[in-house]
Design a protein that fits this description.
It is a single chain. The chain is α/β, with parallel strands linked by helices and 64 residues long. It has helices at 14-26, 39-49, and strands at residues 5-10, 30-36, 53-56. The protein has a 3-stranded parallel beta sheet, sandwiched between helices. The radius of gyration is 12 Å and the shape is flat.
Amino acid sequence: MKQKIRVLIVDDHAMVRLGLAEAIATAADLSLIAEAENGTIALQLYAQHKPDVVLMDFQLPGLD
């Protein structure tokens, strides 16, 4: 079986994260591993999970 692409979502808007999470959930080859609401949390989750892909908003509060 082919390994799924592991995705980290980073966006300060909960509804955007929810929409992206739903889209990822319907894709057979993608797996959502974590979500972050800002850049600081994103860096921590990236170090912890080592995702294959990061979907990130480019304007985040604090660290972007």
